[in-house]
Amino acid sequence: MVVLPDHLHCILRLPEGDSDFSGRWREIKKYVTNYLDVRRNHRGEGMVWQRRFWEHLIRDEEDWRRHMDYVHYNPVKHGYVNSPAQWRWSSFHRAVQQGMYEASWGRSEPDSIFGMQHE
After folding, report:
1. Which class for 18: exposed (0-12), middle (13-18), buried (19 or more C-beta within 10 A)?
2. CA 40, 4, 79, 58: dihedral to nearest 10 degrees?
3. Of 7, 54, 64, 95, which sits with the fewest C-beta atoms within 10 Å of its C-beta?
């Protein structure tokens, strides 16, 4: 997961037989909106989230890895930092501790995500 000033990216594993991505995002958005106590619009919606979201069903190990790379590289892509290790609000640090990445990874765009657009 990575949380940026205007959006977030995450990879979720839902329980077997559960594909209710919309319901999960609705509950996450509701919880965060109530926690932040944000301004609401005329429909009572918190003014913090966009209405839509993008979902992708991970097909295999390679696809999972590419999406992990995309998520972790996102703060660099948007110019907030020079490497994923510099971004505090990311699961990248845990992935480094687990040996999935070197701490120096991502100072330039990885070939694995070249051309991916999921904003």
Report:
1. exposed
2. -120
3. 54
**DSSP sequence for 37-94:** T--B-TTS-BTT--S--------SHHHHHHHHHHHHHHHHHTTS-SSGGG-SSBTHHH
Question: All domains of the chain, ordered by start, with CATH?
Answer: 2-113 (3.30.70.1290)
> Which residue has tokens 């991970």?
58
DSSP state of 108: S
Composition of the chain by helix, strand, coil, percent to 5? 40, 5, 55
Query: With contact defined as beta carbons under 8 Å apart, do 64 and 73 qualify?
Result: no
Tokens of 82: 């020079």
Q: Please give the residue that has the higher pLDDT: either 97 or 6.
A: 97
The letter for the amino acid at 1 is M
